[in-house]
Amino acid sequence: MKIKKLMRKISFSIPVKVVASISVVMIILCGILSAMLSQLTTDLVERQMQLLADENAQIATKYLEAMHSQSKALSSEFSRYISLDQETAEALVENALYSVLDDHRIFSSYAAFEPNAFFPDTDEGLSFYAYRDGNSIVTEVLNDYDDYITEEYYAVSKNTREGHITEPYSYQLSNGETVWLTTISNPIFDEKGNFIGVSNCDILTDTLNNLSYDLNNYNTAYSYILTDNANYVTHTADKSLFGTAFKQDDPAVLDAVTTGKQLTVDGENEIFGGDAFEIYVPLKVEGINQNWSSAFVVNKSEAMASSQRIVFSVIGIALMSVIILTVVTIYLLNKSLKPVSKIVYFAKELGNGNLSSELDITTDDEFGDIASSLKNTMTILGSYIKEISEILSDISNYNLNLSVERDYVGDFSPIKTALLEIIQSLNATMESIDIASGQVSLGASQVSTGAQALAQGATEQAATIEELSASIAGISDGVQDNANNVHEAAEYMEQTMSVMGTSNTYMQQMLNSMDEIKQASEKIGRIIKIIDDIAFQTNILALNAAVEAARAGTAGKGFAVVADEVRNLASKSSDAAKQTSALIEGSINAVLEGARIAEETAKSLESTMEKSMHVSDIIEKIDHASSAQAEAITQITQGLAQVSMVVQTNSATAEESAAASEELSGQAEMMHREVAKFERLAANRV
Question: How far apart are CA 498 and CA 530, in angstroms?
């Protein structure tokens, strides 16, 4: 169940996270790309608007230059007519004005002269005016110098001696219709270069407004022309603005219009009620030093529609890409993650201690490498566990003639070292116990022999005393024999003293052996403590390995299981060490009990020794008092009674010592047999 849950999590969570990450990246990239595309298309649109504005300004410029050429041509013609007679010149002037009107773009033509400059007797000046009136052309010749001398077309050209385009002005036709005109004037000079008048071409601003401007099929686009005084000359979207002042609060725009600078503005437009691109382009007519401006305006939303379509297309493509990428990623990840279930199951079996599980993954990829590593890990762990189990089984079967054959690699190498140290320590301990038990057995045998000899001597003493008692009646006759017997008894007592001294020495040796057994047992306890410490350190190492495996994530799960198994083995080793320690503690208690018994035996021997010395003193007194034996027969009888009691005590003590020695010998033999069960290393055998 857990594996299925994990697989569902892997097959869903990982693809979702991957797709989410990719989607975030794609969205960010799409956002950046959209912003870049938006900026790029904005720049392209602005450049396109700039080109359209330049093109429309060029159209207007060419038109005005054509009109200016007509006006300039009139000026040149009129300069040549000065030398002609008045009638001819007048006819030529009118004819020239008529011919200009052949161009239907020109509403009227005009010529005005300084007083008496073109014809004599023209003190009030002279002006010729030809204009359209319906389908006919009307000509007026006037002497109205006072009227035109202050007009813009005349005064500016006279002062600047250059061509000039006037501000737009209204004109009412004969049918009552009001039109807007602008005049292009050029100065007329005589052959000496003196200013003598102006020649004008008046054009309808409506014709300039109706030129074929390129609006690039924008429904909201329009253009207009402004004079350098910021007055509308044309306006393709609102003709009512002809001749009115340009309303603009932006000083940068006003500066561009009045000084003839190029400017692009992105701002709110009153006509659209929204944002618009406004491009101002200087309109320069050759030969006229004026800074008119041509403006091209288009609704920003319409201009940016193509950009928005591109951005939306990019977003749509990105969304489709994310969807396709999601499907493909989920498919590929699910296909690629199929081996994970086998690996997880294998790792779970490994964690449950099953080292015989099979992992059937042969793919040539990372999962194949993981599977191969896990199988190798399981094989190595299996071999380690098998060898450790065999060693522990041999130890439980009394076999210490062992060696660790397999190489333990990496963090497992301390296990081999610990096993070798345990085997060596156990062999050394068993050898020490074996030697100690042999020494105890030998000492006990010697004590038993001495005790038997002491008992035999006591028996002989008893027989001697009986004989002495039997012959007490003839003591007077056997004084010499008595002396000899006393001397013989002294020798026997000396031998007994010697045997008792030897027995006491052997008993001390046995006590020393018991102490050595106790010390050896304590050493065994310390060794067991070392084994327990090793198990504790192994447990700590296993815990550290488990922590590191947890940090390694999925890749360390297998090793975490191994570390847990090693920790279990360390715990079992610690329990075994504790059990062994308990057994050793029992052995130590038994040794202490034997030492106590041996110590009591030694005390008994010492008591016997003292009493034997007392007997020796008595016999010595008897020997010295042989001459007075007759008189001290009563005392001898009493002394013999005392000797009999001492001999009986010696006999009983000797028998007890013999019994204790036999029991101690039996215990030592049993310990020897137990130790002999262990087959030890050849180097530790005696």
Answer: 48
Tokens of 295: 């403006």
Query: DSSP strand E in 136-273: where?
Result: 136-142, 164-165, 169-172, 178-189, 195-204, 222-226, 232-235, 263-269
Token pair, residue 547, equals 């922590």
Separation of alpha carbons 595 and 588, rounded Å: 10
Q: Which fold has domain 340-396?
A: Helicase, Ruva Protein; domain 3 (1.10.8)
In angstroms, what is the C-alpha Rg of the chain?
70
Angle at 391 between CA 386 and CA 396, to 5 degrees: 125
Which of 415, 414, 413 is CA-nearest to residue 389?
415
Closest alpha carbon to 113 in 168, 157, 68: 157
Q: Which CATH code fits 17-308?
A: 3.30.450.20
Closest residue by Cα to residue 649 from 620, 612, 674: 612
For the chain, domain boundaries: 17-308, 340-396, 414-679
Residue 233: left if φ>0, alpha if ψ -120 to 50, beta else—which one?
alpha
149-183 per-position pLDDT tens digit: 999 999 999 999 999 999 999 998 888 889 999 99
Residue 167 is classified by DSSP as P
Q: Do the strands 164-165 and 169-172 form a parallel or antiparallel pair, or are they unpaired?
A: unpaired
Kindly give the pairing relationship between strand 164-165 and strand 136-142: unpaired
Q: Given this model, what pLDDT does residue 36 score? A: 77
Q: Which amino acid is at 381?
A: L
Which of helix, strand or coil describes residue 98? helix
Closest CA to 64 of 224, 280, 236, 285: 285
Q: How far apart are CA 340 and CA 148, in angstroms?
A: 102
- To which H or E segment does residue 368 belong? helix 366-396
Residue 270 has pLDDT above 90, yes or no: no
**Residues 443 and 513: beta-carbon distance below 8 Å:** yes
- For residues 114 and 196, is the Cβ–Cβ distance under 8 A? yes
The pLDDT tens digits for 466-501 are 777 666 656 656 666 766 776 776 677 677 777 767
| 613 has a pLDDT exceeding 70 | yes
User: What are φ and ψ of residue 111, in 5° steps?
Assistant: -140, 135
User: What CATH number belongs to 414-679?
Assistant: 1.10.287.950
8 Å CB contact between 141 and 122: no
User: What's CA 362's distance to the chain center, in Å?
Assistant: 30
Query: 551, exposed or middle or buried, with CB in 10 Å at 0-12, 13-18, 19+?
Result: exposed
What are the structure tokens assigned to 10, written together? 């892997």
Residue type for 83, please? S
Alpha-helical runs (H) found in 81-119:
86-100
Amino acid at 208: L
User: Shortest CA distance to 199 belongs to which of 146, 138, 143, 154?
Assistant: 154
Contacts of 133 (CB under 8 A, 6+ apart): 173, 174
Residue 649 zone, left/alpha/beta (φ > 0; ψ -120 to 50; rest): alpha
* pLDDT top residue among 250 and 686: 250
Buried b (16+ CB within 10 A) or exposed e, 675-685: beebebbeebe
